[in-house]
Each structure stands twice: as structure tokens, then as C-alpha cells.
Amino acid sequence: LDKHLNSLRPLWWFEAMLRWISGDSRRERGAKAFVTVAGGLQELYREKLLPVEKEYSFHHFFSPELTDADFAARPMVLLTGQYSTGKSTFIRQQLGRDYPGLRIGPEPTTDKFVAVVKGDHDQVIPGNALVVDKSMPFTQLSHFGNNFLTRFECAKMDSPVLEGITLIDSPGVLAGEKQRINRGYAFEEVIKWFADRVDMILVLFDVSKLDISDEFRRVILALKGNDQKINIILNKADRVTTPQLMRVYGALMWSLGKVIDTPEVSRVFIGSFWDQALHNDEQRRLFESEQNDLCTALAQLPASAAVRKLNDLIKRARLAKVQAFLLCHLRSKMPSFMGKGKEQKKLIDGLTGVYEEIAKERNLPMGDFPDPAIMREKLEKLDFSKFPKLDLKKMAALEAMLDTDVPKLLQLVPEEAKASNEVETGQLISSEASPFAVMKVGGAHESSVYQNQWLVAPNADDYSAEFTALGPNAAGKISGQQAKAKLIESKLPSMVLHKIWTLSDADKDGSLTLQEYALAQHFIKMRLADQDLPATLPAEMMPAVKS
Questions:
Q1: Is the pLDDT of residue 434 over 70?
Q2: What is the pTM (predicted TM-score) of this model?
Q3: What would the DSSP string read from start to end of 96-132?
Q4: Is 164 helix (H, G, I), strand (E, B) or coil?
Q5: Between helices 406-422 and 37-44, what is the axis angle to 10°?
Q6: Beta 123-126 vs 152-157: how paired, if at all?
Q7: Are 31 and 405 in contact (CB under 8 A)?
Q8: Within 10 Å of residue 400's Cβ, how many Cβ atoms?
Q9: Would you state the pLDDT for residue 440?
Q10: Most exposed among 24, 232, 333, 367, judged by the fewest C-beta atoms under 10 Å?
């Protein structure tokens, strides 16, 4: 009877019940103040999200239960790609040395998943021992079985880079005849497990290996749902000339377009990520800029880790919410006596229509619903009549988490990000810029390394003849009209010239003295050299005031 009553109750009844339960003033007074984002996430997950996941078989349909280590772990970076594209060499370059157990070669040499983590000394921990260590975020990997665990290990080493991040090296994706080799475990499922948990995914391509094999295609598809984490590396770019590199880049984007079915284009870093001499340095400036961009992104992961984990929990909670409503809806559609199998098949075949009906009834966005093809495969083996009823108390707690608790956690994010920036985390690039590398934070870039060389007063005598030719008045000044005719010869945009004028006209009288004109020309040269102009005129560049 309850089942039929639930199916007849209107949407406003459920909404009213949720508001009544979640609006309890005692609940509001009992809300806890979180100390850290990670601690708050652990508490919210255990108390409000996990009960819903268990009640509605979330772990069977989607991903295993999260552990405390998943929330407390350092940010992780997954490297994947075909064999001999430079994954292990990339890790070696970032660490400045080999990690324990590393082997590099032209053929598939990394035949294991290797988690490279911070340790006091060099140590290799086998997979079977690693998954029972609850301080590490890998315990859930045990369900992939012994065949996988023999191909999984942890390499601990003392490196300042690993203070901030953990690197995950993976076996080279096979191509050609090698694809016939049976790995003995669900390779793509393992890739997906890591992809769902890491903070960044680096997919490496060799300029001479742009073909996407069948296995590589399945790996890329396994990354689906984590598109914002994916970054592409076009490695070994020094092996080709500039015209060849342009054609290679175009071919890569064409190949990826056939596999990654999204309008957004993943960031592509071009370079040669190793410590050997460049074969062709025509594009050295480009390689330096790309390496700086990538290393800056990696170095900033610790500061953004809290936001990523919070975002992932919200995404997981929304999916769990949809899952609960879906199972309850399917249960309510089952007949009491005869024809259950026929009705169940009809619901599975029309699952997209079921999604639309639930979305309209519950006011849920269609984007929150899982892939129908995957759900059909899972649902075929289950009996809908045994699905649980809607637990209003648990659903109300989940709503309270999304509406009240998560915004409170968001308030802690800026403080933790600031604290993370203040702590030395062994950055991949030194915070002190050099002519060869720079951390691209706070507006810094490759050219800004030389900015201090420009922030000195120019020699007015160098511009005296030019100034005199413009015909200054008796007071030794040129008008704005006279100055404009000369300054626009630089071909800089008017807004840039406006800023240059504002900086140079020190006395703000609408005209320029020789010293002020020298400043204007100096700033034009500075901008043409790709240097950022100062926000205000430095005191040491201020023209001398004549008495």
C-alpha cells in the first residue's frame, strides 16, 4: 500500500517533507564548525553522503566507498600514454633523479602502475602490502584482484617536489600486435579509478607516434567525466623542425577530435621534457614558455586541492541523489503481481524517457544523470521490486549538506589556499625567477625576469634631437597633439599609449618636457620588448623638478 501511496503523492508533498525535516531549528543549532576542509569533507561524507550511497547501491553502480585517506592525501597526478612517449622520463626530470625501481627504454619498460610518493628514504612497497595501509589512498584498489596488485607498487623517496604532489606512473598503452597481449586485469577500469581521484591527468604523445590504437582509445574514453583534469603533452618536439611541428600539432588535434567528443579543447603543452640537449632548438622560446606553464600548474595543485576535493564530493552527492530517486522511481513502476519481467524490460529500454520523467518530477538537471548505456547494463541483472523506498530523513540530510554545510566549507578554502602558498612545498620551479625559468604567478612571465632592468630613469640626452625636431615651446614643452603624432609611430594600441602618457606626464599638465618625453619613449620600448608596464611611476624614474 505504501508503494502505491508514494507513487500517487505529488511533488509538493516530498518537498514539504524535506523542508520540514531539514528545517528543524535544533539541527541548525547543532551544525558543526569545521576546522579544515579535509576534516569537514570526511565528516560530511561519513555522516550524510555515505548512508545514501549504501542505501541505494551507489558503490555497485559507480565507484567504491571513499576512505579518510582519499580526503587527506596529497594531490595526485596521473601520467598515461602509449609506450615510449616519455612518461617515466618526465617524472625523472621533475624529480631530478630516478625513482626507486625506475627503468627507461624504447620498448614498454614500465609494466606496472607506480605511485611515487614522499618518503624519508628510498623504498619500494609491493601492491599487496600497499593496499592494506590505511594511511595511503589506495586501499580500494584491492578489489581489482591479485593479478593487478602484482603490477602495482609504491616508490617512496625523499624529494622536495613530492612534498606537494604524488605522481602516478602507468604502463605504456599498447599498439599494433602488442595489443593482443592479455594484461590479466581490467586495465581501463584501473585507469578510470585513478582518473576519478587524481587532481591532474597528463596524456603524453610522441611527435612520431600520433596514431591512437584501440587500447589507447579505450583508455581515453575511460577518462570521460574528468575532462577538466586532462592535459595533453606533445613530447619530444625538438626532434622535428618548425614546419613539421605545425603539421604534427594539427594531426594531433585531428586525432583527438575523433576520440574526445567535447567542444572544449584540452590544454596541449609542447616541448621536450627531459634533461638531454635539444636536437633542434628553433622553438626554444616556445619550449621554455610551455614548460613554465606546466610546472606552474603542477606547483599550484596543493593550493587548489581543497577546491577539487570539495567539487568532487559535490558531484558525487548530486549523482547519489539522482541514483536514489531513480531506484525509487523504478520500484514504484513495478506491478504488484504479474508482468514484472516485461515491465522491467520496458523501463530499461526506455531509460532515457525515465530520466526525463524523474528530472521533471523532481526538478533535477538532466546533466546530473549517469550514462544510460552503463546503467542499462547494471540494471539488467537486478530486481526492481527489491529496490529500497525513499528514505526522507537520509535525503534531507543530503540536501542539508549541499545547501548548508558545503557553503561553510567553501569559506575555509581561501584561508587554506593562502596557508598552502606560504608553506614551502618543493616547487618544480624555484620561486626565484631566472632567464631560463619562471613561476607564472602574480602576473610573472618569461619577459618579466628582466623588468627591473627597465625600471630605471632613461637618459634624456638620447632623445634630445628627436624632441627638438618636434618644436617645443618657450617653456621647453611639446603639446599632446605634437607628442601623439610621434608616439603612434610605435603602432601600439591607443589604450597602451594612454597608460604610457599617464605614467610619463608626471606633473599632469597635458604636455611633455624632454625628461617626460624620454620616459614615454622608454616605456614604448619596454612594452615592445614584451614587458608589463608598472602600475604607477616608480620614484627612481620620477623626472627632476626644475626650480
A1: no
A2: 0.75
A3: TSPPTT----SS----SEEEEEE-SS-EEEEHHHHTT
A4: coil
A5: 150
A6: antiparallel
A7: yes
A8: 21
A9: 64
A10: 367
- Tell me the mean pLDDT in the region 310-318: 92
The answer to whether the CB of 240 falls within 8 A of the CB of 280 is: yes
CA dist., res. 29 & res. 265, Å (int): 46
Compute how many other C-beta atoms are within 10 angstroms of the C-beta atom of residue 237: 26
Q: Taking 70 as the threshold, does the pLDDT of residue 534 lie above it?
A: yes
Count, residues in the chain: 547
104 pLDDT above the threshold of 90? no
- In 265-300, where does DSSP find H-type helix? 284-299
204 in Cβ contact with 79 (< 8 Å): yes
Out of 106-115, 365-374, 518-527, 528-537, which region has the weakest mean confidence (pLDDT)? 106-115
- Higher per-residue pLDDT: 304 or 148: 148
Q: How far is CA 524 from CA 340, 461, 543, in A?
A: 79, 17, 17
Place of cell 609611430: 489
Buried b (16+ CB within 10 A) or exposed e, 82-98: bbbbbbbbbbbbbbeee
- The single-letter code of the amino acid at 133 is D
Please say whether the beta carbons of 281 and 55 come within 8 A: no
CA pair distance 125, 416, nearest whole angstrom: 31
Grid cell in block for residue 534: 608598472
DSSP track, 229-262: GEEEEEE-GGGS-HHHHHHHHHHHHHHHHTT---
Query: Residue 471 — φ and ψ, nearest 5°?
Result: 80, 65
Report the candidate in 74, 69, 108 with the shortest Cα–Cα distance to residue 88. 108
Instruction: Tell me how far CA of residue 385 lies from CA of 341, 354, 378, in angstroms.
Output: 10, 16, 15
